[in-house]
Amino acid sequence: MEKQYKHWEDVRDLLRNWREENCRQSEDVVDLWNEVLANHFGKLGDEGWLVLEQVFIAALDCHNMEVANFCLSKLNQEFPDSLRVKRLKAMKYEASEKYDHALDILDLIIKKDETNAASRKRKVTIYKSQGMIIEAIKELTDYLRIFMADQEAWMELCDLYISQQEWNKAAFCVEELLLHSPFNHLYLQRYAEIKYTQGGYENLEVARSYYSQAAKLNPKNVRALYGLMLTSVHMASNSKCPSQKKKESIKLSEWATNQLSQLQDSNDSKLFSSQILEGMGNLQIGNDSKN
Amino acid sequence: MASTCELSKLAYSKIILHAFKYPHTAINGVLLANEGSNSQSVKYVDAIPLFHHNLGLAPMLEVALMQIDSYCRTAGLVIAGYYHASEAVAEMNPDPVSQKICEKIAEYFPNACLVLINNRQLSMQMTQTSLSVIQYSDGKWKVKDKENLKILPNNEAALNSVSTLLSKKLYKKFVDFDDHLDDIHQDWLNVSLKSMID
After folding, report:
1. Residue A286 included in any domain
2. Burial class of B156 by CB neighbour count within 10 A (0 to 12, 13 to 18, 19+)
3. Do both A125 and A173 map to the same domain?
4. With contacts defined as CB-CB under 8 Å, which chain B residues touch A276?
5. What is the ipTM of this complex?
6. Domain extent for A216
7. What is the per-residue pLDDT across A34-56, written as a single tens digit (0 to 9) for each?
8. CA-CA-CA-CA torsion sign (B139, B145, B150, B155)
9. Contact state of B67 with A276 under an 8 Å Cβ cutoff
10. Considering the entire predicted model, what is its pTM?
C-alpha cells in the first residue's frame, strides 16, 4: 500500500487475493478503490460486481457512506431482484445502527430462501453489535443445527462462549472444528488455551498434550511453544504430578524454550526462560486451582 | 481530596493507536507507572498493548504479563493499570475479564485504574480524550470524575499530537503482544514509534 500509483491491474489482483483469503483490509480497499480502480471500473467486466461488493463492505467498515451508497446503487441497478443485494442493503442498515430495518430485510430473505446461510449469520452479528451476546449465541446455535459443517460459525460460537467464560461450551466448539480438521495446529492451540484457562490439574495435562501436538505440527507456532513451556512448568511444580511426568515436563519445557530462542535469534531478546520461570509463580490469572 | 489519574502523552498515544489499528475487535493493554509511585495520584508513563483476539484466555496473558514484569524491573516501572476498548461501539461498561485482570493488578498496585475507551468519541481528528476511568479501591469499583483524568502536558496538546499521528496512519506500524506472538521479531515495546510520538 506504500506505492502511490499502482497500475489498475495490480490493484484488481490484490483485491482478488484479499477476497479469496477473506482479509479485513477495509481502509486499504477503500483507498485503492478511490485512487485507482474507480476510474477503471468498466475494464473489470464481471469481476467488477464482486469488486463493488467488496468495496461496499469495506466502505461500511470505514463508515464511508458515500462510497457505500455509490456501490450499492450500481449493484442494485444491475441486479434489482437479487437476494444477495438485499442482504447488502441490510448490512447498510446495520452499519447505520438501524437494526430493526436490517432484521426485517433479513427475515424476508430467509423466508424466501431458507437455505440462505449468509443472511442467518448477519442476524447473529446484529445481536452481537448491540451487545446482546446471549441472543447472538442462541441464534448461532440454531444456525449450526442446520448448517453443521460451517467452520467459521463454530469458531465464532467459540469466541462468543469465551467472552461469556463458558469454557466447556467453547471447548465443545473447538472439538467440532477438530473433527473437521484434526491437523490444524491453530485449533489444537486454541483448545489447549481454553483448557488451560479452565484450570485444574487434569485440564493442565490436557492443555499440555494439545500444545505439544500443535508444536509438533508447527514448531514455529509461538503460542504453542509458550503454552507448552507454561503448562510443563506448572505441571512439574504441581504436587499431583508423578515424578515420571515431572521429568517429561521439564524436558518438554526445555525443548520449547530452545525452539523459542531459535526463533528469536537476535541479541536483544526480552524473552527468556530464566526471567520467565522466575516470574512463574506470581502472576496466575486463570482459575487458581492449579496448585 | 480526590486522587488524580494522569496519562503521559506516550501512554495516551499508544492507547489510541492500538484502538485505531484494530477498530473491529476488542483490545486491551496494561499501563505502567514509575516504581514507588504514590498510588493516590498515579501517573501512567507508558502503556503496553496486549491483545486483540480472545482477551479472555489466560495462557498468553500470563506470558505477556511475565515479560512485561521482567521489562518493568529493568526499567524501574511497575504494572499499575489496565486499558480496554470493547468490541461493540456502544459498550461503556467493563466486562468481567477486564475487571478480573485489573483486580489482579490491584493486588500488587493498590488503587489500580481501569481505563475504558469511549468508542463513539474516537475520530481521526480527536476532540475529546475519549477515555473514562474507574478505580479499584477497597474492593470496590469507583468511577472517576472527568476532571480527575489528565493527559500530559495538557489535554489539548495531547489531542493535537495524537491527531497528527493518526493522519500519518502510524497505527499501521503499531505492534501489540498478539502481533509479536504472530511474528516473534515484532517489537511489542514499539521502541521505534516512541521517538515519533515524542
Report:
1. no
2. exposed
3. yes
4. 63, 66-67, 70
5. 0.92
6. 184-266
7. 988 888 888 888 999 999 999 99
8. positive
9. yes
10. 0.91
